[in-house]
Request: fold
Amino acid sequence: MTRMLLGFVVVGVLAGICAAQFNPNVLCDRTSIVHLFEWRWEDIAAECERYLGPNGFGGVQISPPNENVIVKNPDRPWWERYQPASYKICTRSGDEHQFRDMVTRCNNVGVYIYVDAVINHMCGAGAGKGNVSTCGSPYDTIKREFPAVPYSSVDFNDKKCKTESGGIENYGDANQVRDCQLVSLLDLALEKEYVQSKIADYLNVLIDIGVAGFRVDAAKHMWPGDILAVNRKLNDLNTRWFHNGTQPFIYQEVIDLGGEALSVNEYIGIGRVTEFKYGAKLGNVIRKLNGEKMSYLKNWGEGWGFMQSDRALVFVDNHDNQRGHGAGGASILTFWDARLHKMAVGFMLAHPYGFTQIMSSFRWPRNFVNGKDVNDWVGPPSYNNGSTMAVTINEDTTCGSGWVCEHRWRQIKNMVIFRNVVNGQALINWWDNGNNQIAFGRGRAGFIVFNNDNWDMDVTLYTGLSPGKYCDIISGQKEGNVCTGKQISVSENSLANFVIKSSDEDPFVAIHVNAKL
Ligand code: QV4
Ligand code: CA
Reply:
């Protein structure tokens, strides 16, 4: 209680200082987290130790760890995990023992765990009565009973919702958006102290195990005051890994592309908020849709109508909009458009705006019928019995078995490191050609150049870096005392020549002080 009151004071009085639930809680030389979508806890633990820790990743967003109903039609879709059956830690990703082991091992190498918290609703109304759930907990959606929590009919919003169908019919009505069912998912009465307590109990179990924060799923469908009430009940983080009095990082999923009955501004006092305009607009720019050009990125950030930087959680794509769910539509750049995706992620990680998240996906048999992907539901690589396949690692460090592992792509991994190296440095020395060739520096620590025009680029630019030879971390990287890709010479007066062909595999170049020969 006192802690939250304090939180209020901080928000009100010391605005601008990143405090409490706005702070991602990553180690101070780390600046990004990766969403290991649908990964097993065992694989995440191994990935923290063998890859994420050594390469400077700050943390992992995991898929919902609580028990969900098993959906058989279609066959085990990824989205069944957004249909809770109870708060037991028991899913296709693993059981509680494996979860604890993951959190401990990741925390021990300074890579923290962020839980996708599905607290707006339980499963869909159509699930019926049974115990076909990942841990066998029973449910009865007709009677609205979830005895393993327990929740009963009084804990749902059926009376509060005023639409005839019981579902959200009009997104222009904020009451419907909060009190009615999102795609028939049983909507919890979050204003009830009892419901808030049950949710807080669940989140506190996770906090005590050692997680560092939460993605609040479907936050737009909950009243800000109710989310705040849940936050007030949360414990401080486990002092085995975090400083005394550290609050969980909160980032709320609110899709606000403008023109809705509610806005992200209602949520930025509680914690960070997903800035969905970011990926949608960056996709337009890199795809050159609607006359957009990279030179227009000069005032990227608040200048584009985004929320304030220290409240924003940003990504190029997420698990929804990479497959046509949620918002953003056709402009979103995913691993399916690898070359443009890498440029977008490269730009995001070089630019100081927001707290950055990398998407790490699994491949699915995409199949467009009349413009819609009829396989948008397909779940993670799995065996016939429904269990999720292990992530395998190829000799060249990429992943196998259908796991895409964008975070292991050299260009992306190296840009995660770039962001760490230039952390806190201002964006300076902007240059552009009025079209799609741009360049900018981050203090005297790093410099990046893009050529998204259809012609070759050969320019000499002021980099701000000290003289010497640097390895381009996109076409290669520094290994020992050699560059495996392009090498860039910075002169006595900080100038460097950049040649980027429009046909280059990746038409951008990035250098930083830690990649100097
Ligand atoms: C369907 C119909 C309903 C009908 C119902 C009848 O759509 O109109 O009433 O059948 O039973 C799945 C199905 C969906 C089905 C629903 C209930 O896709 O067709 O309803 O289950 O059975 C994910 C998926 C959803 C999925 C849901 C639950 O994206 O397709 O629904 O999980 O399994 C908005 C929100 C935003 C949301 C985004 C997708 O503002 O909050 O849509 N994003 C988050 C998550 C997302 C998740 C949810 C919210 C729900 O990122 O992954 O939805 O937890 O923009
Ligand atoms: Ca709701």
Notes: The radius of gyration is 23 Å.
